[in-house]
Amino acid sequence: MADPKVRDRVDPESQIIERVEHPRLWKVLLHNDDYTTQEFVVWVLESIFHLPRAAAFAIMMHVHQQGVGVAGLFTRDVAETKVKATQQLAEQHEYPLLVTIEPELPAGAS
Fold first, then answer.
1. Can you tell me the mean pLDDT for 6-20?
2. Model-level pTM?
């Protein structure tokens, strides 16, 4: 039988509030160079980042015109894995493609 004194101390109106924090996201950045072909960059975006051809082409053009572009946002482990896979492919095909990561700024931060 439940202890009636314990029940008196619990407020039936109380609510449990859970705060779930999402992991910090990291941007995978592709950097433009004069040697890596546009076709190779599109292929990397399709095969490593699983982007549809149109999105891959748009990102490649942004990188080509602006010098750097975001391939995607991921948790740190996933971002590092994608960087490593991209670097390995670039090495195998003898391209100097530079891929880096940087943390995504929280919303409202400047």
1. 66
2. 0.79
